[in-house]
Design goal:
By secondary structure, this protein is an alpha+beta fold. The protein is built from ten helices and 20 strands. A hairpin with a 5-residue loop joins strand 18 and strand 19.
């Protein structure tokens, strides 16, 4: 499983921001540079960012080279000719070009796609602060199934969207064929305006009307009054590192803590790594980035002040995905903490947004993300150190019980 995660309450994900505004610095990068607040860590390197002599990667290409497509596409050329000559209702050249580009990109994997100029314009319009969201993340698996992860107390949750509901329609239009960034734009709208979401879940198929509203959900939050100090990491965005620091400042030195990443579908990979290195010794390997053409690059923990906490338990579930999986693997596979919960989602690849000459945007999978021990988890997920049954009737109590085991304590 795995997909391209989107935060529907944000203006636009970092992978798209530079492509939507190509005049900005770092235009074609898959992730944004960390802010000064995030510390001195380097960003994840991308092919094209680094000198040509820099190490690249290891994703399988099935023996194909860049030249294998020369002289090909005979069937596509014939289809264009036949549609132009004989089709009862031929598509416009713009529509045909967009569909062909989407189809070719989708042959790479489920996360590669093309956003047409018209769709790109919609994204730019909907990134305006005047537009608001519903407080919900989406995560898509390899089969194209879209799962809803509403934030606690959000308009989506209040309207009846449940954790793990499958999204099928947006205002009557099928959701699955749309590129996820475009789907994001369709769900966003002006404050107070409703959006109709067709979902499938435990209550069967249903249509839910959600009124759009400004979303103010912290990405890192300390939960008190529980068996342990628990910091819930909802997503990784520009605010996460600063909010995590505030949480850690409220925890007594040496205290054992839980980092709760259940339902965290990812976000900005560089922010996730900037948070992870607060718990890791200098130079600890956090992730390897394996491109197509050579050896993997690396990202290691930088020097700097480290969190003065005790043992860590990392709570994960089947919707812990993407950058959140990188975070969990960086800590657990360096022996810094134990994972508790269910097998994670399994998104271990990275996309890059590339502006197209047409005015559209290509989103292309360019690298595989490997944990410190080098064991790939893409489409498999990360197995927890301590399993909690997903269908348990007392799941929260089971998480707490297994966390006591992780800390070597008795309840």
């Amino acid at each position: 499983m795995i997909r391209f995660c989107l935060l529907l309450c944000l203006l636009c994900p970092p992978v798209l921001a530079a492509a939507l505004h190509p005049g900005a610095a770092g235009a074609a990068q898959a992730t944004a540079r960390p802010s000064a607040r995030d510390g001195p860590s380097a960003r994840i390197p991308l092919k094209g960012d680094e000198p040509s002599s820099a190490p690249a990667a290891r994703l399988s290409t099935g023996g194909k080279t860049r030249d294998d497509t020369r002289g090909g596409f005979a069937a596509l050329r014939e289809a264009v000719r036949l549609v132009g000559d004989k089709a009862l209702a031929p598509p416009s050249p713009e529509e045909a070009e967009s569909l062909a580009a989407k189809g070719y990109m989708s042959a790479v994997d489920a996360y590669s796609t093309y956003i047409s100029p018209r769709e790109s314009k919609l994204l730019k319009e909907r990134s305006d602060p005047a537009f608001t969201g519903v407080g919900m993340d989406l995560v898509q698996d390899d089969a194209g199934v879209l799962y809803c992860i509403p934030y606690a107390g959000s308009p989506a949750e209040k309207a009846g969207i449940a954790h793990g509901d499958v999204l099928r329609f947006v205002d009557g239009e099928a959701a699955e064929p749309l590129p996820l960034p475009v789907l994001q734009g369709r769900i966003r709208g002006r404050e107070g305006e409703p959006v109709r979401l067709g979902v499938l879940g435990g209550q069967g198929p249903r249509e839910v009307s959600v009124v759009r509203a400004p979303i103010h959900v912290p990405s890192a939050e300390l939960l008190r009054g529980e068996a342990f100090f628990r910091i819930r990491l909802v997503r990784f965005d520009a605010h996460t590192r600063g909010q995590l620091e505030e949480c850690l400042a409220a925890v007594p030195p040496g205290a054992d803590i839980v980092l709760d990443l259940r339902g965290n579908v990812g976000g900005d990979l560089n922010v996730a790594l900037a948070c992870a290195e607060r718990f890791l010794p200098e130079n600890a390997l956090m992730v390897s980035v394996a491109y197509r053409d050579g050896e993997p690059g690396e990202r290691r923990a930088a020097a700097g002040e480290k969190a003065g906490v005790g043992r860590l338990a990392l709570w994960q579930d089947r919707f812990t995905a993407s950058a959140a999986e990188v975070f969990c693997a960086a800590l657990s596979r360096n022996g810094r903490g134990k994972t508790v919960g269910q097998r994670s989602f399994g998104k271990g690849v990275m996309q890059q947004a590339l502006p197209a000459e047409s005015g559209g945007i290509f989103i292309l999978t360019v690298a595989e993300l490997l944990p410190p021990d080098g064991k790939a988890y893409h489409a498999r997920g990360l197995e927890p150190d301590l399993l909690v049954a997903r269908r348990s009737a007392s799941i929260q109590e089971d998480f707490i019980r297994r966390t006591y085991e992780a800390f070597g304590k008795r309840p």
